[in-house]
Amino acid sequence: MQNLVANAVNYRSPDRDVKVRISATSNYHGAMVLVADNGKGIASGDRQRVLEPLIRLHREGDGQGSGLGLTTCRRIAEAHGES
Predict the structure, then answer these.
(1) Which of 15, 41, 60, 81 is the most buried (most CB within 10 A)?
(2) To which H or E segment does residue 7 belong?
(3) Residue 42 maps to which CATH number?
(4) Which domain does 39 fall in, by range?
Protein backbone atom coordinates (compact mmCIF):
# COMPACT_ATOMS: atom_id res chain seq x y z
CA MET A 1 0.00 0.00 0.00
CA GLN A 2 2.83 2.37 0.89
CA ASN A 3 4.42 2.02 -2.58
CA LEU A 4 1.13 2.61 -4.38
CA VAL A 5 0.27 5.70 -2.37
CA ALA A 6 3.85 7.03 -2.69
CA ASN A 7 3.65 6.60 -6.48
CA ALA A 8 0.33 8.43 -6.58
CA VAL A 9 1.87 11.38 -4.75
CA ASN A 10 5.21 11.30 -6.58
CA TYR A 11 3.66 11.17 -10.05
CA ARG A 12 0.73 13.51 -9.48
CA SER A 13 -0.49 15.87 -12.14
CA PRO A 14 0.73 19.45 -11.70
CA ASP A 15 -2.67 20.64 -12.96
CA ARG A 16 -4.77 19.43 -10.00
CA ASP A 17 -4.65 18.50 -6.33
CA VAL A 18 -3.67 14.90 -5.71
CA LYS A 19 -6.51 12.52 -4.84
CA VAL A 20 -5.98 8.89 -3.85
CA ARG A 21 -8.88 6.50 -3.33
CA ILE A 22 -8.34 3.23 -1.45
CA SER A 23 -11.16 0.73 -1.25
CA ALA A 24 -11.53 -2.93 -0.47
CA THR A 25 -13.97 -5.78 -0.76
CA SER A 26 -13.84 -9.18 0.87
CA ASN A 27 -15.53 -12.52 0.62
CA TYR A 28 -14.76 -16.12 1.54
CA HIS A 29 -11.94 -16.20 -1.06
CA GLY A 30 -10.08 -13.28 0.55
CA ALA A 31 -9.86 -9.55 0.06
CA MET A 32 -9.29 -7.27 -2.91
CA VAL A 33 -7.73 -3.87 -2.31
CA LEU A 34 -8.00 -1.18 -4.99
CA VAL A 35 -5.91 1.98 -5.18
CA ALA A 36 -6.81 4.70 -7.69
CA ASP A 37 -5.46 8.21 -8.18
CA ASN A 38 -5.96 11.19 -10.46
CA GLY A 39 -2.30 11.49 -11.45
CA LYS A 40 -0.60 11.63 -14.83
CA GLY A 41 -1.41 8.04 -15.67
CA ILE A 42 0.71 5.59 -17.62
CA ALA A 43 0.44 5.27 -21.38
CA SER A 44 -0.87 1.88 -22.48
CA GLY A 45 2.44 1.09 -24.20
CA ASP A 46 4.35 1.61 -20.94
CA ARG A 47 2.09 -0.28 -18.53
CA GLN A 48 3.95 -3.60 -18.65
CA ARG A 49 7.32 -1.88 -18.84
CA VAL A 50 6.92 0.08 -15.58
CA LEU A 51 6.35 -3.18 -13.70
CA GLU A 52 9.91 -4.31 -14.50
CA PRO A 53 12.72 -3.59 -12.00
CA LEU A 54 14.59 -0.29 -12.35
CA ILE A 55 12.40 1.04 -15.17
CA ARG A 56 11.34 4.69 -14.92
CA LEU A 57 9.62 6.81 -17.54
CA HIS A 58 11.59 10.03 -16.78
CA ARG A 59 8.76 12.37 -17.73
CA GLU A 60 8.96 16.10 -17.13
CA GLY A 61 7.92 16.98 -13.59
CA ASP A 62 8.22 13.43 -12.24
CA GLY A 63 9.65 13.09 -8.75
CA GLN A 64 12.61 10.98 -7.77
CA GLY A 65 12.39 7.22 -7.65
CA SER A 66 14.36 4.02 -8.02
CA GLY A 67 12.07 2.14 -10.40
CA LEU A 68 11.32 -0.47 -7.74
CA GLY A 69 7.98 0.72 -6.29
CA LEU A 70 5.59 -0.80 -8.82
CA THR A 71 7.83 -3.86 -9.24
CA THR A 72 7.54 -4.48 -5.50
CA CYS A 73 3.75 -4.05 -5.66
CA ARG A 74 3.55 -6.54 -8.52
CA ARG A 75 5.63 -9.12 -6.64
CA ILE A 76 3.51 -8.77 -3.52
CA ALA A 77 0.31 -9.25 -5.56
CA GLU A 78 1.80 -12.30 -7.29
CA ALA A 79 2.85 -13.77 -3.93
CA HIS A 80 -0.81 -13.53 -2.90
CA GLY A 81 -1.95 -15.31 -6.05
CA GLU A 82 -2.90 -12.23 -8.08
CA SER A 83 -1.31 -10.43 -10.99
Answers:
(1) 41
(2) helix 2-10
(3) 3.30.565.10
(4) 2-79
